[in-house]
Amino acid sequence: MNYIDGALRRLAAVLTVAIGTAFAGVAFGEPPAGTAPRSAEAAAIKKLLEQRFEGVSIGHISKTPYFGLYEVQFDDQIVYTDAKVTYILVGSIYDAATKKNLTEAKQREYSRVAFDSLPLDLAFKKVKGNGARKLAIFSDPDCPYCARLEQELKSIDNVTIYTFLYPIDQLHPDAARKAKLIWCALDPVRAWDQFFESGALPKNNGDCDNPIAATNALGQKLRVTATPTLVFADGSVIPGALPAQRLEAEIVQAEAEAKRLATKK
């Protein structure tokens, strides 16, 4: 996946800094106490970024424990810069000891959505096993990666899956029609499963009241740019067709984190 898109393309036209061997042997970690920048520092960095990248949305800014860099929410991505915004680093930073992608972890934290705030009436619901765990998916019937995810989901049990039909017209011109036919079926869950098993579509006109326009607006609001996109119980958002083993691990982790966050509240 190319992470230098949208506003980052404008940024990359100015400067792209590659990371890799430069970080070899360097251990990173969570910011120690007291490393968060004073509000004046963050405000100054924000002002410089807005001056140099007009129209870009600047969110959270915090001091990192490495190289004197600041972590910045730059539109829907995380980038790194110095205090004077002389350089911008676009890419992921890893903990060399644990191999953990620190940038991805922060991005997931910042991009969380409140699962309970999702308009689940716009999705159809499939309960597997006891349905105790929960997962929401933005999916396109003509997306090959969505088809792959459906195969991986077969081995996942004890979960309630909410599927938001999210056809991407630019890539799949016929997907919206198929989505409407599936939604208008007497049993949308069965129609969805049959479509991915055999390609068969339900026999209706697709002219019932459907949520396609509403799910499109919801996806844009949540900055869903690819299908499938998964939303876990803790609100973390991950795009892509995850293999079953990782999918199970993410569900377990998200359920535990959701409980932790609920207790914290």
Explain this structure to me?
The chain is α+β, with helices and mostly antiparallel strands and 265 residues long. The chain folds into two domains: 104 residues, Disulphide bond isomerase, DsbC/G, N-terminal (Nuclear Transport Factor 2, Chain: A), CATH 3.10.450; 150 residues, Glutaredoxin, CATH 3.40.30. Helix content is 35%, strand content 17%. The protein contains eight helices and nine strands. Strands 5-7-6-8-9 form a five-stranded mixed β-sheet. Strand 3 and strand 4 form a beta hairpin. It is globular, with a radius of gyration of 21 Å.
SSE topology:
Blueprint: H1 7-14, H2 39-52, E1 58-63, E2 70-74, E3 77-81, E4 88-89, H3 102-110, E5 124-128, E6 133-139, H4 144-153, E7 159-165, H5 175-183, H6 188-198, H7 212-221, E8 229-232, E9 237-239, H8 244-264
Parallel strand pairs: 6-7
Antiparallel strand pairs: 1-2, 2-3, 3-4, 5-7, 6-8, 8-9
Features:
265 residues; alpha+beta; Nuclear Transport Factor 2, Chain: A; Glutaredoxin; five-stranded mixed beta sheet; four-stranded antiparallel beta sheet; 8 helices; globular; disordered N terminus
In short:
The chain has 265 residues and is of the alpha+beta class.
Number of domains: 2
CATH architecture of the largest domain: 3-Layer(aba) Sandwich
Task: Bin the helical content.
Answer: 25-40%
Q: Which parts are unreliable, with pLDDT below 50 for 5 consecutive residues or more?
A: 1-37
Which fold name corresponds to the CATH topology of the largest domain? Glutaredoxin
How would a crystallographer describe the biggest sheet? 5 strands, mixed
